[in-house]
## 1
Amino acid sequence: MELLPRSPGEFGSARYWDRFFRQRGQRPFEWYGAFPELCPVLQKYVRPRDKVLVVGCGNSELSEQMYDVGMCEDIVNIDISDAVIHQMQERSGSKRPKMSYLLMDMLQMDFPDAHFQVVLDKGTLDAILTDEEEATLAKVDKMFAEISRVLQVGGRYFCVSLAQTHVLKKAVKYFSQEGWVVRVHQVAGSGDKQQFVLPVFVYVMTKFRKIPGSAPQILEICPEEQDKPMRVESVERLVAAVKDRQHYALLCSQLSKTPCGEQVSLDLCDKESGRPRYTLHVVDSPSVKPSRDNHFAIFIIPQGRETEWLFGTEEGRRQLATSAGFGRLVTVALHREQHYEGMAGIQAELSGKVMELAPPGLPARQQVPFLSVGGDIGVRTVRHRDTSPLSGEYVVEDVKGDGTCYFRRLVFLCNRNVVQSEARLLARTPLTGQKKRRKDKKKPNPAEPPAAIDKSYLCCEHHKAMVAGLCLLGGPDPVPALLAVLVVGLGGGSLPLFVHDYFSQARVAVVEIDPSMLEVATRWFGFSQGDRMRVHISDGLDYVAKLAAEGTILQSIPAQYDAIMFDVDSKDLTVGMSCPPPAFVEKPFLQKVKTILKPEGVFVLNLVCRDAQLKESVLATLREVFPLLYARCIEGEVNEILFCQPNPKGCQDPAELGARARALEGALRQPGRPWDSSYVLADMLQAVKIL
């Protein structure tokens, strides 16, 4: 039996609907959900004394159920199908004396002006607006004009719809331009009984007298029936908000049917501000054998630790899911702009939403565990927030790591999952002979991080490797007497600070393009300038080019630096290389770098490149300029540290490299000078390979 139309145009044909309802018989045909799903929205607005018009009623039970529950009784139903009107008149009969069914075309209604307080349309607009042809749009305009005519000022037009983009835009633009208030409700799903994968929406459009001039549009969305409305500034933003909810519904439907081959990521936003509150990753582990208790779990990532390899990379999350032993693990990252009321508060907030991401085969009433590291949500304190003209918006924040350690981080919010700079904070120690606190004095807060920077600790593994590369300088002494170092890229200043403090004769020049970073490093990361440490606010490209040009003008070879270190990020996120910017690894510029490097010196480059072809091109260019090239990959990260030497006769024996590294470390580890015991220079160079 063919009930669907041969072409979309038949949806507007009385002949088609007559045939449809004769073939379907007495069985109700419900477009987009039944009364229980729509009732919570309707009862917010429809009053018992309202006079209600239902356009395109079909043989839906909606009117009958509204009547039977006492929502309202004065209901007029119209349709263009004679067959369905007779069918419904027989079905209601004397049971609902105040409700009527009339054969009438809603494009040309017989009712007087302002006759109804409510007009209800369940799927009718969707059936008519099947395309955006001129004739179709003209028909819709006529429909809207008639609805507007028969509706009183203050009355409401309810349109139940799947909210296809062209349908939603047409309705919202038409009525908002007429000065009406437009509010879009998302109808709560009905579980397994829901007929459609896509969510159902109700446009509630309230009629106001049109004010001459440009009155502001009032557009709102209610994600679920119990939520208060959220104001949006434009039709485009309203359409985008609806699309987000449609995509989420499709995603949930897909995840409920089959395991996901690739990790799925989505943001859950704050209802008030619309800003992301949680970032979820759905990770399936096919290797985990399912049992009753290991289908599904939620893992709350402690605040500030979302950038760690285990939580911030696809491979890390896969390893986490496998080690946790669950078939599906949803990791939840918490956003710095939000406030959270502990693990219990997060669990209460997320429990309903994450169940929509449950895997197929989850037993009914299954308890889903919430997991975390140490059972808490971590500590994150934003110390400073500002915007730089060059680097954009950034934050300085203190976060709690493993155990009792705290770390201070600089994060550029344009790339919020990457820690730009990091330093460990020193634990507070009581002063010698300090008197006991009075009982009425405020006790120290264990969650309050310390403020002093531990300058002996290099948090970043790539910084440790870059410092270890200084043993390639050779010479009779492990630590050259008058070491001249150029560092391009300041960040928080931990790399140049370490070189300055541990190489006591080193003279360090730092080039930083962004003056805001010098202020951040000085105020928040313990950085300071002096006789042996100077910062030059300049573009690194210009600074190096100027030094090379000065040597050329003097017709001499400027051998200024023993070591040149590049640790500079790229602001262009569209390139597959985030460090350094492409211009820093072009051959003409690299030749200038070589020019200002001593013959026995070393050029150290932090390379972060996800594009394999681009990376190979960079390595080829480096080989053309520097005869000797070493590489050190940083485990669990994209970073690769490249050590480049102009002298082809440099050290190429791994055993000799290890001996040099041990000798350098021995020279740096002086009595009374703190040293991180986990930092072994020889280990840093153990995995170095010659390219």
## 2
Amino acid sequence: QICNQHNAEAPNLEQAFHRMAQTEPNLDHDVSWFLLPSYWAKIVVALISFLCFANSYDGDFVFDDSEAIINNKDLRAETPLGDLWHHDFWGSKLSSNTSHKSYRPLTVLTFRINYLFAGGFYPVGFHVINIILHCTISVLMVDVFSILLGGLQFSNKGRRLNLAPKTSLLAALLFAVHPVHTECVAGIVGRADLLCALFFLLSFLGYCKAFRENKEGHNFSIFWVLVSVILGAVAMLCKEQGITILGLNAVFDALVINKLNVLEIIQKLLHKDKSLENAGLLRKGLLFRITLLMSGGASILYIRWRIMGTGPPAFTEVDNPASFADSLFVRAINYNYYYSLNAWLLLCPWWLCFDWSMGCIPLIKSVSDWRIIALAALWFCLIGLICQALCSEDSHKRRILTLGLGFLIIPFLPASNLFFRVGFVIAERVIYLPSIGYCILFTYGFSLLSKQAKKKKILAVAVLGILLINVMRCALRSSQWRSEEQLFRSALSVCPLNAKVHYNVGKNLADKGNQSAAIRYYREAVRLNPKYVHAMNNLGNILKERNELQEAEELLSLAVQIQPDFAAAWMNLGIVQNSLRRFEEAEQSYWTAIKHRKKYPDCYYNLGRLYADLNRHIDALNAWRNATVLKPEHSLAWNNMIILLDNTGNLAQAEAVGREALGLIPNDHSLMFSLANVLGKSQKYKESEALFLKAIKANPNAASYHGNLAVLYHRWGNLDLAKKHYEVSLKLDPMAPGTKENYNLLRRKLEQLQKKGG
């Protein structure tokens, strides 16, 4: 649909575009840079962006990937697709008090498709999609920067002209190789930012299509304006920042399509100048289009608000310390300091870290803190740029600086803490979109320097050097994101005061079995943050396994004292108290854990073990049954039920439970072994033998499996096979209890049979 906005005073749109091309300075004129045809420019950008991040393709799932992908039930086929629209990014219900309210259903949908096509959690497919997305976005940037730097102009055939081929290529390369983008590309969770950026740019390009020249004169297509709004909504369904494109489209419309002088309009508004009506607000339908953008944005936000609910996300002080400061002055100073650090990461992306919370950036509490200089530098630069953007007599300069600042600041607003508290101090991924503004300002600055410089080639070589350094930095940083060990260790030099960094290094070491080293890092995490309950819990667990029960109890007791609803710490405290034979306290700790986490199968399992130790067999069976109801694949609970029923002579019931368990977990060799023992005692030798052999096939190095099969053959009278499996069992474990005695009995029996036969 075409909306005609005729005005007798307005010149023909084609003539206006032609005049703009003649009168506006061309950024490329004084720039010494590569001039390539559009398709070659896009190929170069795609190849270089691929080169930067290609080595991340075979990386592991790291950091937040575990929660957002591996532990996210929304990725699995059994979860209805409709649930994605009622859950947050991490798979929690949006109505839950613990939800982060990060509503990104389309991103989760792409994860689910990845999972289904790969047939499981294989990270290669996830990484490849991220790399392809970044390459696609970088290619689109060539078109976007050609519009932002060269203006929106069309040929007589309605084809958009690229009036800044050199500077748009430079800006796209700067974007493609910026090291701060590594988290978005190499970290799978960063797909939210990539998808958001993709639809963000498509929305902008769609909005530009609304102004293609036609015979009517000053026309625009309502269809493409509405398409732009829809694409903005899609961007927001990938990540919250996407909605900001509607504001940027309005800014672009005012500055580029209507060529408004913002300062002039402000002055006329202040003086109530009646000539404001002729300032261009109505002449080309600007007011109508802005109304469409605002109405669309308001509708999108309302729908999101209805789905998400009114409750704010729940964050803790360690996530964002400044937002919990009592003093408004302290909050304001620290927020501005965070902004300056984000700006520094764009200017000098050398110190990069996967997490900037937990003491990584200590609060500024006084004006005597030397870091105030960073705030002053930031605002000095911003005010200077804003003054030039508003007051410069050069309309071309005003337009580029305003667009650069707009793309730098507006997409960053949702992460600024101005409208709501966010759950981080600094997050490199949220700078993905604002870096567009940085690339515009950098490229414009380069063009101004080129205009003044006598030796333009030296300046071009310097910029080329920056690009090459960034390519190498991207490759290095991508390799660090390939595994958790490399990622966490890389952060130690950047944020040595960050307790979470030490915690994650310790956790990684503990997972690899290096408990001694893990203890050191956990202790350092607790030293840096004495209220770090998760570090206390993990340290307490390791000490418990090393039988250092006294210190383990102290740490876990402190953890639940600091956070009374910490269910995992209550359960672990119960395990320690059970080991110390303080059974009543252990039982109370287990029930407290269950009180705070109703569906806690592991706690029911440990409670069952406590009851078994106290010979409260019925209570033990009930606890284990609860564990299997909550988690049907809980092998240990099933096994303990079978063994307890077997030991108490309830063979029929043990057999029934064993068959039920194997029906749910058919490939669990430990369940096969337990049920085979029961069947052997019930003289169902053939079925017992089959299960033993199946268990041995799954786990051939288990001495007890061979030993118990030998006992079965011994009872069954199959003495040669019994002898064979006794020998295999003793070879695997010479100290296996009872096996040596049984083997000696068998040998004596065989000797007696030989004597009788002789």
## 3
Amino acid sequence: QPALSNKSRKKKKKRKTKKSAAEETLEDNDLENIDNLLEKIEDTNGLSQETQSGIIADSRPLLYVEHRNLNPENELKRYFGARAVLGDQRPRQRQRQNVRGTWLTTPDNSWPRYTSTGITMQLLETRRGVQYFTFEHHRKYQQVQLLFLKNIESMDPNSVVPLLQALEPYHVDSLLLLSDAYRMQEDQEMARELVEQALYSLECSFHPLFSLTSGTCRLDYRRPENRSFFLALFKHMMLLEKRGCPRTALEFCKLILSLDPENDPLCVLLLIDFLALRAREYTFLTRMFQEWESHRNLSQLPNFAFSVPLAYFFLSQQEERSELELSQAREKAAQLIQLALIMFPSVLMPLLDHCSVQPDARVASHSFFGLSAQISQPPALNQLTSLYVVRTHSLWKDPAVMAWLETNVNEVLHMVDAQDPLVEDSEHKRKIRYQSAPRNIYRHIILSEIKEAMAALPPEVTSQPVMGFDPLPPLDSIISYTRPERTNHPSNESTLSLFFRSLLPNFNLQGDMRHDGDEEAGAGHDLNQGVNSLMAAMRDMLANIQFLEPPRDDNPEGDGEWD
């Protein structure tokens, strides 16, 4: 009997081991099935209804944000599979150190222990179903913030690091400033981690009624305490786009726009079309144009004027749609792209140049799309067209897109030669409008760091210092506590010098420049020396960053996973 019992035990053990291996394969299959299910849900895009144009639109609010789309791992798993993204990490492994669950970021165990930072959020009022919130700095955080501003104005960049080491490891503005410094050194991973820490700190301060998904919660950018949240979201969105997660970046863009859709302080309307096209969310872009054109005049922005017909063209190539929907999309695409070419003729030639496409003789020799169209356009329009061409030219390189564009360019030239009244009316509108851009567009250009657009900024913007943690603050700011005034630097500095100064305020690119006419070579040497000194100072600063965690009482017996 003992021998038989031992054999039976061995058989049971073998069955258990076989069962565990089978369970592992089932878990892997479940992960893949979940990914496939998410892709199907993504394709159907939720509950939908037919519209007059025949294009299916989402029945939820336009700026509705889904929690699952805020996690870049979900998008990466759709591209590469769950095993490639997660590896040996357990999908639902809980964090012991940063125990608070968040939606915007996933806290890492290597981050400093989170404690109360002195930032809270208050509900100011509720009007017509819209809730207005604001962040508030308590006395503790105010002291750290004033010390941060004092150190920035004292031209000592190394003084920012002690704030994170000893006083406040989750000081938001310091984290954003150091993130820019790491990004300048092409350390995208560390730059992203610092921005995520800033977002984690702010999300832990949310009011219980503040919702990321409803689209009815507002923050006033005029309050300095709220700007850090806007800027952290924007920087995180740009890093996600560079990381290859356009769908997640689009969701963050919708979140930023929902916080203040009327004023749009960071002017994400200049970017949302690009993210929608990259994420292949063509229905969202066309729906936004249909719903907002009447009260926001989106067609007066070059990016919407060209991106919306491109979205209709991509919809017309989807074979799973009915023939009626395809014909309607083709007709709409042709109509809108011709209007865009008539309204903004200066976009065509730079767009073809960036796509390395040589126009035919008729287009190249015609004055409507020639060099005069670019020279005669107002400066504000030049900034908008430069932004769009540099940002989205890669989407136009497809041969089918180029063939479609060529057909419509020839149609527009027929209208121009026939002296269509629409051509003259559009030229009149261009001369009246776009004389000067609002402050939020300048702010967007500075944050986007597209050199072609920054070169077109007016002197009143380039002559003032631009701080990376608060670029071009609103002129009607609502100040809740006294802040030191910023030091006015000489107005003859270049945009590059001012940008470097925003990261390292003691940097002086022109201080040691030679002004003698016969020493141009020496001036070039001084320029290189100044840039090298900047990078050397930055390397010293980044090399000395060490986060000191406060002592904690760990339970040596409680290292297992939480139930």
## 4
Amino acid sequence: RTQAEMAHTCRGTINLSTAHIDTEDSCNIVLSNGGRTYHLKANSEVERQRWVTALELAKAKAIRMRNNQSDDSGDEEPASQSDKSELHGTLKTLSSKLEDLSTCNDLIAKHGAALQRSLSELENLKLPAESGEKIKAVNERATLFRITSNAMINACRDFLDLAETHSRKWQRALQYEREQRIRLEETIEQLAKQHNSLERACRGAPGLSSSSTGVTSTAKGSVPSAKGEASDEDEETEYFDAMEDAPAFITVTADPKHHRRSGSNLSGASEGHPEDWNLEDSVFESSNQSSYNESTCKDLLPKKRRRTRIPDKPNYSLNLWSIMKNCIGKELSKIPMPVNFNEPLSMLQRLTEDLEYHELLDKAVKCESSTEQMCFVAAFSVSSYSTTVHRTAKPFNPLLGETYELDRLEEFGFRSLCEQVSHHPPAAAHHVYSKRGWTLWQEITIASKFRGKYLSIMPLGAIHLEFHSSGNHYVWRKVTSTVHNIIVGKLWIDQSGEIEIVNHKSKDKCQLKFTPYSYFSRDVPRKVTGVVSDADGKAHYVMSGTWDEKMECSKIVHSSHGSTSTEGKQKTVYQTLSPKVLWKKYPLPENAENMYFFSDLALTLNEPEERVAPTDSRLRPDQRLMESGRWDEANVEKQRLEEKQRAVRRRREAEAVEALEEGKDYEGYIPLWFERKVDTVTGELICAYKGGYWEAKDKQDWSSCPDIF
């Protein structure tokens, strides 16, 4: 590139003429220039050397081009301080000349009018005696007019000379911008064609993703994306590096019959028994048919007929002015957010959706090995995110004291209860009991951060799962959800972070990594990887898949220490058997795109039911009106409920002040079906189910429920 071209490049470009090229190890390249440093990684040492040679040649060419450019070539780089000063001086001179032209124009108009008057007076003269004086005055004014005209002509000439001097630079810059636009359009067109061909190739070979466990993630991409110290202009830009998030292990698929190769250079750090993997009566073997066959079997059981659709989402245009005018003169807490941003489910119902793949826990009950059971628990923890991939709408914030029950004891063997136990900060407690041998409970508080271009949602709180027969007690926490394109563009959701699942009885662990989306990565989007290990740290299974489609499990038969990564960590090489599918996402129902992308379970969550508590989310009027498509009425009802809740909160605050003045203790809001206590496993203060709800439902005694609707 010439220096003029360098002045119009994209953000993140490094000028090779002043760049420093170095190598870290056999595969890494460091490219630095000033405050920006890029770490690049090649597939092999040979490929790295090819890139270093190409970069050095390009650097030498850039230096020659910079030295050979003449002063009037129009290729100066305006990024340098001297060029900036020259450009500023040129603009200042042009501005000064323009002011001179304006002044001369005023003077010409003034003296021209005076000359015209003098000529008129000369024409009206009758006395020869006065003619001498008048002619003298006319000559003086004509001379002054001539001087002013000459000054203006000279100023115009100077302006024209300057404009001609710099016109070539401007023309070259404009021409370069046009060429760059055409080049960019061609590049985008090529990328679109490549993307379409890759999609067709992936659809034509669906087995590629499942067999990709034999490929090392750290070797993908000959030149990965930049990972550097961003300049000031990049402070608000978030970059994800595919190499930075590469897993710390490599998996290689082994032949079950010949997994112990005599000539192998792998040192036997740990070994497994592949014959255990091929038992036909294994829980893993039956899990391959779990998703669809089990749903078919469920249809054979006598159960209540549930609804399979809801009214289509209305095509309401969002009037931003109608929202903004409601903000004028009001406190921030009193600004009503319209239901246009919502979906007709509450946060309590969304929390209950985590149970969509509860059959994974039913299978885990049958596992004899704790590490095998951990695999199903890990798959269950990932499956809860599958419903979020298209669900960009916001659930309703539950009112304080609002509850939601899901009684599927006869159909699926479990019953679930949620309660909103705090409003500031918003917190929900959840308890699930299954007669098939497990209990799950959690308290989730949502923390969010708005960062301009995206919204980060961080669920706080631990999820507990206990199996009745074995006593295995699993604890894990959720990862961060990020909603992108908040201001402009189409909304999309990503999950990123790590989940550590711990069995507090056997001390088994599973580390799951949710890889954030990266434009530069050639990895599968929404990728999840992990390793299941026992109390001694010995790895038994490798987990792999995506959080929106499926999770697979591969039994480790051999492990060894591999090469050292760029961060100085030694990678582990796992030799595994062929993967087994533990979980696969159910297909969305027909017409889901017009029903908020609800799954089959989500369509039934707000279905009216009898005998539920008067605080149940199904009875919330604004949510029911929205589901029916009456959004204007829903907005009015939503505002009424929020104002009613604020009045209750003000009353409690007044009671707290009164109690303080009287020297009494004020407990504040006390949850109805849950109670605060210290968890014996984690030592944290949690809201645990204290009982009484299902007994009250049997008696239909809801006298203790508050009036919140």
